[in-house]
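Help needed: design a sequence for this.
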């Protein structure tokens, strides 16, 4: 690990810049009104700092851009595929690699191969698309995250861990006949970007072996998870991130990956497998859904950029900067008295709306109201993770109030500087100063499913 002083600066310099538009307040109000007060419907060019997601929004390095030029566009057997395959075998140890256009493409192919009607898939707070694909295949996701994860302030190192007793009770109840696999999401995005310990992963593997059940890693942020293991888990500091990555991957029979996160590319994903029989089965569906097994819906240049990005994503200096930037934002917000979920996760800072806007009940959408106000204040785009995202109960038609009413400030990789982060702190603070005057919202348009993407709102009177 480089001398500690290096964790205080960005371990890169900026070779190319993209100007940011700075719409004034009058324009911001107009843009937001045009978007029906839903920040999801804003145009990118009207946003000053975009903290909607860290997915596909990272800045590629000069080597990755050079890799694009070196991409081999051969339909079958592209050199870039073999380069990506070798990187995955080296860093993660999966023998069989199937490229896919992004994470949910990988989930679709793998889940279609493995899940049958009535199956259950335990895991640690499955990500929306994972849950969506499980349900699409008529399975059911069962959340087995440790109960401490529901407390936004309890300061524990691995709040993404699985509750082994709960997992075993599910294994006893359904058995391997109805559990095609267990999924471990590391870090756990829907649980606040919280990491999973190597001890917990090993225990999950041991328990699953006892019951003859396979385990799948949702590894979108696998490298960030390795960094937390190195920093927080006793005895792990002596290993490199790559060594930890191999140890982590050894706990899994298979993996789905959204390369748009820890491989620092704008598009891509893959499936990693160990078993040839399973590979043969999955391969055929991959060809049907994604494309031939050496490109999977991607251009050769994309495969090349992933191969390079996978190595950059496990560099300790990079990860120190990355996790350090998220921590910096969280600590600064906390210092200013903002209600921040603790400890901060790997890719985002979460604000607790139950404390920020306690006068707005879940039905009146505090998260979307905050996001709208933050945009008006500063041009910053954040995203609600709460009752609006949860949707309505399909049977009663009632809103499903979320356990945690959060707003996520998601940080793209290598895109924004500490001054940008300081601007975020000052802007959130300004919203805080006038929070008592902020009103709730009503829907003026609401789609029956995935309403958060297209909803429109009006302010309550
Ligand atoms: N798994 C996790 C843990 C994710 O966070 C995501 C995407 C996916 C799978 C799906 O991957 O987008 O490449 O199809 N998360 C993004 C986010 C969208 O904003 O958190 P994808």
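Sure. Designed sequence:
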């Amino acid at each position: 690990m480089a001398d500690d002083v290096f964790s205080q600066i960005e371990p890169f310099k900026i070779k190319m810049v993209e100007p940011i538009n700075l719409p004034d307040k009058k324009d911001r109000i107009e843009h937001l009104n045009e978007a029906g007060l839903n920040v999801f419907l804003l145009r990118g060019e009207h946003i000053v700092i975009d903290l909607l997601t860290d997915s596909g929004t990272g800045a590629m390095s000069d080597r990755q851009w050079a890799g694009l030029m070196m991409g081999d566009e051969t339909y079958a057997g592209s050199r870039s595929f073999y380069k990506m395959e070798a990187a995955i075998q080296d860093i993660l140890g999966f023998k069989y690699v199937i490229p896919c256009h992004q994470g949910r493409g990988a989930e679709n192919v793998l889940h279609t191969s493995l899940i049958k009607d009535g199956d259950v898939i335990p895991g640690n707070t499955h990500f929306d698309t994972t849950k969506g694909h499980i349900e699409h295949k008529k399975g059911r996701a069962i959340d087995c995250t440790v109960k401490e994860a529901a407390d936004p302030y309890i300061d524990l190192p691995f709040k993404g861990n699985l509750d082994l007793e709960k997992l075993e009770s599910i294994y006893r109840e359904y058995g391997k006949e109805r559990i095609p696999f267990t999924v471990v999401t590391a870090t756990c995005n829907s649980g606040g970007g919280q990491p999973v310990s190597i001890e917990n992963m090993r225990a999950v593997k041991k328990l699953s072996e006892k019951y003859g059940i396979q385990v799948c890693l949702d590894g979108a942020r696998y490298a960030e998870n390795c960094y937390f293991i190195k920093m927080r888990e006793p005895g792990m500091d002596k290993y490199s991130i790559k060594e930890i990555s191999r140890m982590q991957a050894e706990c899994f029979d298979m993996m789905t990956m959204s390369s748009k996160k820890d491989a620092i590319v704008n598009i891509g994903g893959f499936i990693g497998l160990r078993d040839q029989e399973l590979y043969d089965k999955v391969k055929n569906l991959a060809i049907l859904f994604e494309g031939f097994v050496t490109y999977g819906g991607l251009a050769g240049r994309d495969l090349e950029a992933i191969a390079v990005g996978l190595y950059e994503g496990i560099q300790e200096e990079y990860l120190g900067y990355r996790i350090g930037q998220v921590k910096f934002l969280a600590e600064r917000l906390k210092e200013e008295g903002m209600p921040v979920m603790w400890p901060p996760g790997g890719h985002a800072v979460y604000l607790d709306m139950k404390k920020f806007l306690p006068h707005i009940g879940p039905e009146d959408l505090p998260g979307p109201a905050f996001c709208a106000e933050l945009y008006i204040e500063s041009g910053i785009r954040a995203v609600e993770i709460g009752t609006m995202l949860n949707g309505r109960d399909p049977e009663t038609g009632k809103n499903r109030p979320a356990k945690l009413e959060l707003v996520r400030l998601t940080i793209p990789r290598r895109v924004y500087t500490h001054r940008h982060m300081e601007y975020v702190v000052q802007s959130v603070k300004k919203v805080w100063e006038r929070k008592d005057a902020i009103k709730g919202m009503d829907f003026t348009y609401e789609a029956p499913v995935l309403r958060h993407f297209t909803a429109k709102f009006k302010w309550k009177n």
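Residues 53, 55, 102-104, 127, 129-130, 185, 189, 218, 220, 258, 260, 269 surround F0G (CB under 6 Å).
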